[in-house]
Amino acid sequence: MPIASEMTAFDSAKALFSRYAESLQLEKRYPGRRLHERLTLPDRSVEFRLTLQLDRGDTLITQGYRVQFNDDRGPYKGGLRFHPLVDLEEVKALAFWMYLKTAVVEIPFGGAKGGIRVDYENLTLAEKERLTKKYVLVLGDEIGPEKDIPAPDVNTGEREMAWIMDAWRMHHGRYERGVVTGKPVAVGGSQGRTSATGRGVFFCIEEAAREMKLDLAQCAAAVQGFGNVGRHAALFLHQAGVRVTAVSDVHGAIRNSQGLDIPGLIRHVQEAGQVAGFKGGDSFARDDLFFEPVDILVPAALENAITAERAERIQARLVAEGANGPTTPDAIALLGEKGVTVIPDILCNAGGVTVSYFEWVQNRQEFYWSAEQVDHELRAVMVRAYRQVAAEAASQRCTLREAAYRLAIARVADAAHRRGAQ
Ligand code: GLU
Protein backbone atom coordinates (compact mmCIF):
# COMPACT_ATOMS: atom_id res chain seq x y z
CA MET A 1 0.00 0.00 0.00
CA PRO A 2 1.50 3.38 -0.92
CA ILE A 3 2.00 5.93 1.83
CA ALA A 4 -0.79 8.43 2.32
CA SER A 5 0.68 11.23 0.21
CA GLU A 6 1.16 8.87 -2.74
CA MET A 7 -2.32 7.44 -2.55
CA THR A 8 -4.39 8.09 -5.63
CA ALA A 9 -8.04 9.01 -5.31
CA PHE A 10 -8.85 5.43 -6.34
CA ASP A 11 -6.60 4.02 -3.58
CA SER A 12 -8.46 6.22 -1.06
CA ALA A 13 -11.82 5.12 -2.43
CA LYS A 14 -10.87 1.44 -2.12
CA ALA A 15 -9.45 1.97 1.37
CA LEU A 16 -12.71 3.54 2.52
CA PHE A 17 -14.78 0.81 0.92
CA SER A 18 -12.72 -1.87 2.69
CA ARG A 19 -12.95 -0.04 6.00
CA TYR A 20 -16.73 0.14 5.84
CA ALA A 21 -17.48 -3.15 4.06
CA GLU A 22 -15.74 -5.18 6.76
CA SER A 23 -18.64 -5.20 9.19
CA LEU A 24 -21.05 -6.28 6.44
CA GLN A 25 -19.15 -9.57 6.13
CA LEU A 26 -19.90 -9.98 2.44
CA GLU A 27 -18.01 -13.26 2.19
CA LYS A 28 -20.02 -14.76 5.00
CA ARG A 29 -23.32 -13.50 3.67
CA TYR A 30 -22.62 -14.52 0.06
CA PRO A 31 -20.09 -17.36 0.34
CA GLY A 32 -17.79 -17.84 -2.61
CA ARG A 33 -19.16 -14.90 -4.56
CA ARG A 34 -16.12 -12.66 -4.02
CA LEU A 35 -18.32 -9.61 -3.86
CA HIS A 36 -15.62 -7.48 -2.28
CA GLU A 37 -13.52 -7.91 -5.42
CA ARG A 38 -16.47 -7.60 -7.75
CA LEU A 39 -17.44 -4.29 -6.19
CA THR A 40 -13.96 -2.76 -6.08
CA LEU A 41 -12.84 -3.55 -9.63
CA PRO A 42 -14.34 -1.51 -12.47
CA ASP A 43 -16.38 -3.53 -14.98
CA ARG A 44 -14.51 -1.73 -17.74
CA SER A 45 -12.13 1.22 -18.02
CA VAL A 46 -11.05 2.76 -21.27
CA GLU A 47 -8.35 5.29 -21.94
CA PHE A 48 -8.04 6.51 -25.49
CA ARG A 49 -6.19 9.01 -27.62
CA LEU A 50 -8.14 12.05 -28.69
CA THR A 51 -6.87 14.17 -31.54
CA LEU A 52 -8.19 17.67 -32.04
CA GLN A 53 -7.49 19.97 -34.94
CA LEU A 54 -7.01 23.40 -33.39
CA ASP A 55 -8.41 26.49 -35.09
CA ARG A 56 -4.93 27.83 -35.77
CA GLY A 57 -4.05 24.70 -37.74
CA ASP A 58 -1.92 22.53 -35.47
CA THR A 59 -3.04 19.44 -33.63
CA LEU A 60 -3.69 18.71 -29.97
CA ILE A 61 -3.28 15.14 -28.83
CA THR A 62 -4.66 14.17 -25.45
CA GLN A 63 -6.38 11.39 -23.53
CA GLY A 64 -10.03 10.61 -22.99
CA TYR A 65 -11.40 8.23 -20.38
CA ARG A 66 -14.60 6.40 -19.52
CA VAL A 67 -14.85 4.06 -16.57
CA GLN A 68 -17.98 1.92 -16.29
CA PHE A 69 -17.63 0.74 -12.75
CA ASN A 70 -20.74 -1.18 -11.88
CA ASP A 71 -24.17 -1.74 -13.41
CA ASP A 72 -25.64 -4.25 -10.97
CA ARG A 73 -28.52 -1.89 -10.10
CA GLY A 74 -29.05 -0.33 -13.55
CA PRO A 75 -27.33 1.29 -16.53
CA TYR A 76 -24.01 3.06 -15.96
CA LYS A 77 -24.44 6.71 -15.01
CA GLY A 78 -22.05 9.53 -14.32
CA GLY A 79 -20.57 12.83 -15.38
CA LEU A 80 -17.79 14.02 -17.64
CA ARG A 81 -14.90 16.07 -16.30
CA PHE A 82 -12.74 18.13 -18.65
CA HIS A 83 -9.70 19.20 -16.68
CA PRO A 84 -5.90 19.30 -17.14
CA LEU A 85 -5.31 17.00 -14.15
CA VAL A 86 -7.82 14.27 -15.01
CA ASP A 87 -6.27 10.80 -15.16
CA LEU A 88 -7.52 7.23 -15.21
CA GLU A 89 -7.11 6.71 -11.45
CA GLU A 90 -9.20 9.78 -10.68
CA VAL A 91 -11.92 8.74 -13.11
CA LYS A 92 -11.98 5.27 -11.54
CA ALA A 93 -12.49 6.79 -8.10
CA LEU A 94 -15.24 9.07 -9.34
CA ALA A 95 -16.99 6.17 -11.11
CA PHE A 96 -16.70 4.07 -7.95
CA TRP A 97 -18.41 6.79 -5.90
CA MET A 98 -21.12 7.13 -8.56
CA TYR A 99 -22.44 3.60 -8.16
CA LEU A 100 -22.43 3.99 -4.38
CA LYS A 101 -24.22 7.34 -4.73
CA THR A 102 -27.01 6.00 -6.94
CA ALA A 103 -27.48 3.18 -4.42
CA VAL A 104 -27.66 5.57 -1.44
CA VAL A 105 -30.53 7.51 -3.03
CA GLU A 106 -32.02 4.34 -4.55
CA ILE A 107 -32.25 5.45 -8.15
CA PRO A 108 -32.07 2.63 -10.72
CA PHE A 109 -28.59 3.28 -12.09
CA GLY A 110 -25.08 1.97 -11.67
CA GLY A 111 -22.00 4.16 -11.75
CA ALA A 112 -19.59 5.48 -14.35
CA LYS A 113 -17.47 8.56 -14.99
CA GLY A 114 -15.54 10.00 -17.87
CA GLY A 115 -13.19 12.77 -18.68
CA ILE A 116 -10.73 14.43 -20.97
CA ARG A 117 -7.30 15.57 -19.83
CA VAL A 118 -7.32 19.04 -21.28
CA ASP A 119 -7.06 22.72 -20.41
CA TYR A 120 -10.62 23.03 -21.63
CA GLU A 121 -11.24 26.60 -20.56
CA ASN A 122 -8.57 27.86 -22.92
CA LEU A 123 -9.97 26.21 -26.05
CA THR A 124 -12.12 28.22 -28.46
CA LEU A 125 -15.83 27.50 -28.66
CA ALA A 126 -15.43 25.63 -31.97
CA GLU A 127 -12.57 23.55 -30.54
CA LYS A 128 -14.66 22.70 -27.47
CA GLU A 129 -17.50 21.45 -29.65
CA ARG A 130 -15.21 19.38 -31.88
CA LEU A 131 -13.46 17.81 -28.89
CA THR A 132 -16.70 16.97 -27.08
CA LYS A 133 -18.24 15.41 -30.18
CA LYS A 134 -15.03 13.49 -30.92
CA TYR A 135 -15.21 12.00 -27.44
CA VAL A 136 -18.72 10.71 -28.21
CA LEU A 137 -17.74 9.34 -31.61
CA VAL A 138 -14.75 7.45 -30.18
CA LEU A 139 -16.96 5.85 -27.51
CA GLY A 140 -19.50 4.87 -30.17
CA ASP A 141 -21.95 2.30 -28.86
CA GLU A 142 -20.46 2.36 -25.37
CA ILE A 143 -22.84 5.14 -24.43
CA GLY A 144 -26.60 4.98 -24.87
CA PRO A 145 -29.81 5.49 -22.90
CA GLU A 146 -29.95 1.90 -21.72
CA LYS A 147 -26.23 1.39 -21.33
CA ASP A 148 -24.25 4.36 -20.08
CA ILE A 149 -25.61 7.86 -19.64
CA PRO A 150 -23.15 10.78 -19.24
CA ALA A 151 -23.92 14.06 -17.48
CA PRO A 152 -22.14 17.26 -16.43
CA ASP A 153 -19.25 17.39 -13.99
CA VAL A 154 -16.31 19.81 -13.55
CA ASN A 155 -16.09 22.20 -16.53
CA THR A 156 -18.98 20.64 -18.44
CA GLY A 157 -22.59 21.77 -18.47
CA GLU A 158 -25.72 22.17 -20.56
CA ARG A 159 -23.83 23.23 -23.66
CA GLU A 160 -21.65 20.09 -23.72
CA MET A 161 -24.63 17.82 -23.00
CA ALA A 162 -26.52 19.24 -26.02
CA TRP A 163 -23.42 18.58 -28.17
CA ILE A 164 -23.26 15.02 -26.87
CA MET A 165 -26.89 14.37 -27.76
CA ASP A 166 -26.25 15.82 -31.21
CA ALA A 167 -23.09 13.75 -31.81
CA TRP A 168 -24.91 10.58 -30.74
CA ARG A 169 -27.77 11.44 -33.11
CA MET A 170 -25.34 11.95 -36.00
CA HIS A 171 -23.63 8.65 -35.30
CA HIS A 172 -26.78 6.56 -34.78
CA GLY A 173 -29.10 8.39 -37.17
CA ARG A 174 -31.91 8.92 -34.70
CA TYR A 175 -32.95 11.13 -31.85
CA GLU A 176 -32.44 9.71 -28.40
CA ARG A 177 -32.66 12.40 -25.76
CA GLY A 178 -32.08 10.04 -22.86
CA VAL A 179 -28.51 9.31 -23.99
CA VAL A 180 -27.28 12.15 -21.79
CA THR A 181 -28.67 14.21 -18.90
CA GLY A 182 -28.07 17.79 -17.87
CA LYS A 183 -29.18 19.07 -21.29
CA PRO A 184 -30.70 22.53 -21.79
CA VAL A 185 -34.48 22.53 -21.25
CA ALA A 186 -34.86 23.64 -24.89
CA VAL A 187 -33.62 20.23 -26.15
CA GLY A 188 -35.19 17.93 -23.57
CA GLY A 189 -33.39 18.79 -20.35
CA SER A 190 -35.18 18.88 -17.02
CA GLN A 191 -36.23 21.91 -15.06
CA GLY A 192 -34.07 22.25 -11.99
CA ARG A 193 -31.16 20.05 -13.15
CA THR A 194 -28.53 22.81 -13.04
CA SER A 195 -29.32 23.80 -9.48
CA ALA A 196 -30.06 20.22 -8.34
CA THR A 197 -26.74 19.30 -6.72
CA GLY A 198 -26.64 22.53 -4.72
CA ARG A 199 -30.29 22.12 -3.77
CA GLY A 200 -29.65 18.57 -2.58
CA VAL A 201 -26.69 19.78 -0.50
CA PHE A 202 -29.03 22.31 1.09
CA PHE A 203 -31.74 19.72 1.85
CA CYS A 204 -29.12 17.58 3.61
CA ILE A 205 -27.88 20.57 5.62
CA GLU A 206 -31.47 21.31 6.68
CA GLU A 207 -31.91 17.73 7.89
CA ALA A 208 -28.57 17.69 9.72
CA ALA A 209 -29.28 21.08 11.32
CA ARG A 210 -32.60 19.78 12.63
CA GLU A 211 -30.87 16.78 14.20
CA MET A 212 -28.07 18.88 15.62
CA LYS A 213 -30.54 21.51 16.86
CA LEU A 214 -28.78 24.21 14.87
CA ASP A 215 -30.94 27.19 14.03
CA LEU A 216 -29.95 27.96 10.44
CA ALA A 217 -30.96 31.60 10.83
CA GLN A 218 -28.20 31.91 13.47
CA CYS A 219 -25.55 30.03 11.47
CA ALA A 220 -22.60 31.15 9.38
CA ALA A 221 -21.27 29.11 6.47
CA ALA A 222 -18.17 29.01 4.26
CA VAL A 223 -18.24 27.56 0.75
CA GLN A 224 -15.09 26.30 -0.98
CA GLY A 225 -15.55 26.42 -4.77
CA PHE A 226 -17.95 28.61 -6.69
CA GLY A 227 -18.70 26.42 -9.68
CA ASN A 228 -22.16 25.04 -10.30
CA VAL A 229 -22.39 23.17 -6.98
CA GLY A 230 -20.83 25.81 -4.69
CA ARG A 231 -22.74 28.72 -6.13
CA HIS A 232 -26.13 27.03 -5.84
CA ALA A 233 -25.43 25.69 -2.36
CA ALA A 234 -24.39 29.21 -1.30
CA LEU A 235 -27.53 30.67 -2.86
CA PHE A 236 -29.92 28.25 -1.13
CA LEU A 237 -28.16 28.76 2.21
CA HIS A 238 -28.39 32.52 1.75
CA GLN A 239 -32.10 32.29 0.86
CA ALA A 240 -32.69 30.27 4.02
CA GLY A 241 -31.19 33.05 6.14
CA VAL A 242 -27.76 31.49 6.71
CA ARG A 243 -24.96 34.06 6.72
CA VAL A 244 -22.54 32.86 4.02
CA THR A 245 -19.49 34.67 5.33
CA ALA A 246 -16.73 33.27 3.08
CA VAL A 247 -16.47 31.89 -0.43
CA SER A 248 -13.46 30.79 -2.47
CA ASP A 249 -12.68 29.74 -6.03
CA VAL A 250 -9.48 28.68 -7.82
CA HIS A 251 -8.18 32.22 -7.91
CA GLY A 252 -8.88 33.50 -4.40
CA ALA A 253 -11.34 33.99 -1.56
CA ILE A 254 -13.53 36.72 -0.10
CA ARG A 255 -15.15 37.16 3.29
CA ASN A 256 -17.64 39.38 5.06
CA SER A 257 -18.53 38.55 8.66
CA GLN A 258 -21.98 40.12 8.17
CA GLY A 259 -22.70 37.69 5.34
CA LEU A 260 -21.98 38.05 1.62
CA ASP A 261 -24.72 39.16 -0.78
CA ILE A 262 -24.74 35.88 -2.75
CA PRO A 263 -27.01 36.98 -5.66
CA GLY A 264 -24.73 40.04 -6.05
CA LEU A 265 -21.64 37.83 -5.90
CA ILE A 266 -23.06 35.51 -8.59
CA ARG A 267 -23.59 38.53 -10.86
CA HIS A 268 -20.04 39.71 -10.12
CA VAL A 269 -18.58 36.27 -10.99
CA GLN A 270 -20.56 36.18 -14.24
CA GLU A 271 -18.79 39.37 -15.28
CA ALA A 272 -15.37 39.12 -13.63
CA GLY A 273 -14.88 35.35 -13.84
CA GLN A 274 -13.77 35.15 -10.22
CA VAL A 275 -14.92 35.99 -6.69
CA ALA A 276 -11.98 38.33 -5.99
CA GLY A 277 -12.78 41.96 -6.59
CA PHE A 278 -16.34 41.70 -5.26
CA LYS A 279 -17.10 44.98 -3.52
CA GLY A 280 -19.17 43.40 -0.77
CA GLY A 281 -16.28 41.48 0.81
CA ASP A 282 -12.55 41.47 1.62
CA SER A 283 -10.08 39.27 -0.19
CA PHE A 284 -8.03 36.71 1.73
CA ALA A 285 -5.86 33.67 1.01
CA ARG A 286 -7.83 30.95 -0.78
CA ASP A 287 -6.69 28.04 1.37
CA ASP A 288 -7.52 29.81 4.63
CA LEU A 289 -11.21 29.38 3.86
CA PHE A 290 -11.28 26.04 5.68
CA PHE A 291 -10.41 27.67 9.00
CA GLU A 292 -13.08 30.37 9.03
CA PRO A 293 -15.11 30.73 12.25
CA VAL A 294 -18.30 29.24 10.80
CA ASP A 295 -20.85 26.60 11.78
CA ILE A 296 -21.12 24.99 8.35
CA LEU A 297 -18.38 24.27 5.82
CA VAL A 298 -19.23 23.20 2.27
CA PRO A 299 -16.28 21.85 0.26
CA ALA A 300 -17.56 22.08 -3.32
CA ALA A 301 -14.45 21.84 -5.50
CA LEU A 302 -12.13 18.87 -6.15
CA GLU A 303 -10.90 15.77 -4.29
CA ASN A 304 -8.58 15.78 -1.28
CA ALA A 305 -9.20 19.42 -0.33
CA ILE A 306 -9.56 18.63 3.39
CA THR A 307 -6.31 17.00 4.45
CA ALA A 308 -5.55 15.92 8.02
CA GLU A 309 -3.55 19.12 8.52
CA ARG A 310 -6.49 21.24 7.51
CA ALA A 311 -8.98 19.11 9.40
CA GLU A 312 -7.13 19.90 12.64
CA ARG A 313 -7.89 23.58 12.19
CA ILE A 314 -11.48 23.37 10.97
CA GLN A 315 -13.88 25.20 13.29
CA ALA A 316 -17.17 24.21 11.63
CA ARG A 317 -19.44 21.73 13.40
CA LEU A 318 -21.01 20.52 10.19
CA VAL A 319 -19.23 19.70 6.93
CA ALA A 320 -21.45 19.12 3.88
CA GLU A 321 -19.50 17.49 1.06
CA GLY A 322 -20.73 19.10 -2.16
CA ALA A 323 -17.66 17.81 -4.02
CA ASN A 324 -16.77 14.19 -4.66
CA GLY A 325 -14.06 12.88 -2.33
CA PRO A 326 -13.12 16.24 -0.80
CA THR A 327 -11.84 14.70 2.48
CA THR A 328 -8.80 12.40 2.67
CA PRO A 329 -9.13 9.14 4.67
CA ASP A 330 -6.86 10.57 7.44
CA ALA A 331 -8.92 13.72 7.65
CA ILE A 332 -12.12 11.66 7.82
CA ALA A 333 -10.82 9.92 10.94
CA LEU A 334 -9.68 13.19 12.46
CA LEU A 335 -12.98 14.99 11.91
CA GLY A 336 -14.69 12.01 13.53
CA GLU A 337 -12.46 12.33 16.60
CA LYS A 338 -13.19 16.06 16.76
CA GLY A 339 -16.92 15.33 16.78
CA VAL A 340 -17.58 17.19 13.54
CA THR A 341 -20.68 15.93 11.72
CA VAL A 342 -19.86 15.21 8.08
CA ILE A 343 -22.58 14.65 5.48
CA PRO A 344 -20.68 12.37 3.09
CA ASP A 345 -20.37 13.08 -0.61
CA ILE A 346 -22.25 9.98 -1.78
CA LEU A 347 -25.30 11.30 0.05
CA CYS A 348 -24.76 15.05 0.14
CA ASN A 349 -24.14 15.68 -3.56
CA ALA A 350 -26.55 13.04 -4.89
CA GLY A 351 -29.15 15.67 -5.85
CA GLY A 352 -27.50 16.12 -9.26
CA VAL A 353 -27.75 12.51 -10.33
CA THR A 354 -31.24 12.30 -8.82
CA VAL A 355 -32.54 15.04 -11.11
CA SER A 356 -30.55 13.38 -13.93
CA TYR A 357 -32.70 10.34 -13.26
CA PHE A 358 -35.83 12.52 -13.42
CA GLU A 359 -34.59 13.92 -16.73
CA TRP A 360 -34.05 10.42 -18.13
CA VAL A 361 -37.55 9.40 -17.01
CA GLN A 362 -39.04 12.51 -18.67
CA ASN A 363 -37.10 11.77 -21.86
CA ARG A 364 -38.35 8.21 -21.99
CA GLN A 365 -41.92 9.40 -21.60
CA GLU A 366 -41.52 12.63 -23.58
CA PHE A 367 -43.59 14.20 -20.85
CA TYR A 368 -42.09 17.08 -18.93
CA TRP A 369 -42.44 18.16 -15.32
CA SER A 370 -42.72 21.63 -13.81
CA ALA A 371 -39.86 23.10 -11.77
CA GLU A 372 -42.03 22.74 -8.64
CA GLN A 373 -42.61 19.04 -9.31
CA VAL A 374 -38.87 18.43 -9.82
CA ASP A 375 -37.98 20.21 -6.57
CA HIS A 376 -40.73 18.40 -4.69
CA GLU A 377 -39.57 14.97 -5.90
CA LEU A 378 -35.93 15.87 -5.27
CA ARG A 379 -36.68 16.88 -1.72
CA ALA A 380 -38.55 13.62 -1.17
CA VAL A 381 -35.60 11.53 -2.40
CA MET A 382 -32.95 13.48 -0.49
CA VAL A 383 -34.86 13.61 2.78
CA ARG A 384 -35.71 9.91 2.62
CA ALA A 385 -32.08 9.01 1.88
CA TYR A 386 -30.77 11.32 4.61
CA ARG A 387 -33.13 9.82 7.19
CA GLN A 388 -32.30 6.24 6.22
CA VAL A 389 -28.59 7.02 6.55
CA ALA A 390 -29.09 8.83 9.86
CA ALA A 391 -31.15 5.91 11.22
CA GLU A 392 -28.44 3.42 10.15
CA ALA A 393 -25.79 5.63 11.81
CA ALA A 394 -27.82 5.69 15.03
CA SER A 395 -28.43 1.95 15.09
CA GLN A 396 -24.83 1.05 14.21
CA ARG A 397 -23.35 3.86 16.33
CA CYS A 398 -21.26 4.96 13.39
CA THR A 399 -20.71 8.06 11.29
CA LEU A 400 -23.05 9.14 8.51
CA ARG A 401 -20.34 8.16 6.02
CA GLU A 402 -20.03 4.63 7.33
CA ALA A 403 -23.82 4.34 7.40
CA ALA A 404 -24.14 5.56 3.80
CA TYR A 405 -21.46 3.09 2.65
CA ARG A 406 -23.11 0.24 4.57
CA LEU A 407 -26.51 0.88 2.97
CA ALA A 408 -25.07 1.36 -0.51
CA ILE A 409 -22.77 -1.66 -0.42
CA ALA A 410 -25.55 -3.89 0.96
CA ARG A 411 -27.93 -2.77 -1.82
CA VAL A 412 -25.44 -3.32 -4.61
CA ALA A 413 -24.26 -6.63 -3.15
CA ASP A 414 -27.86 -7.82 -2.98
CA ALA A 415 -28.46 -6.82 -6.62
CA ALA A 416 -25.22 -8.48 -7.74
CA HIS A 417 -26.16 -11.64 -5.88
CA ARG A 418 -29.64 -11.76 -7.39
CA ARG A 419 -28.23 -11.33 -10.88
CA GLY A 420 -26.17 -14.46 -10.51
CA ALA A 421 -22.58 -15.52 -10.33
CA GLN A 422 -21.47 -15.01 -13.93
N1 GLU B 1 -21.30 14.65 -11.99
C1 GLU B 1 -22.37 14.55 -11.05
C2 GLU B 1 -21.98 13.70 -9.87
O1 GLU B 1 -20.82 13.57 -9.57
C3 GLU B 1 -23.69 14.15 -11.69
C4 GLU B 1 -23.72 12.83 -12.37
C5 GLU B 1 -25.02 12.57 -13.14
O2 GLU B 1 -25.91 13.38 -13.10
O3 GLU B 1 -25.07 11.51 -13.77
O4 GLU B 1 -22.81 13.21 -9.16
Task: Give a quick summary of the entry.
This protein has 422 residues and is of the alpha/beta class. The protein has helices at 9-21, 26-29, 35-40, 88-104, 125-139, 158-172, 196-212, 228-239, 262-272, 308-313, 329-338, 345-348, 351-365, 371-396, 400-419; strands spanning 44-53, 59-70, 76-83, 111-117, 148-152, 220-224, 243-248, 253-255, 282-284, 296-299, 318-320, 341-343.
SSE layout and pairing:
Elements: H1 9-21, H2 26-29, H3 35-40, E1 44-53, E2 59-70, E3 76-83, H4 88-104, E4 111-117, H5 125-139, E5 148-152, H6 158-172, H7 196-212, E6 220-224, H8 228-239, E7 243-248, E8 253-255, H9 262-272, E9 282-284, E10 296-299, H10 308-313, E11 318-320, H11 329-338, E12 341-343, H12 345-348, H13 351-365, H14 371-396, H15 400-419
Parallel strand pairs: 3-4, 3-5, 6-7, 6-10, 10-11, 11-12
Antiparallel strand pairs: 1-2, 2-4, 7-8, 8-9
Helix pairs in contact: 1-4, 4-15, 5-6, 7-8, 7-13, 7-14, 13-14, 14-15
The structure holds glutamic acid.
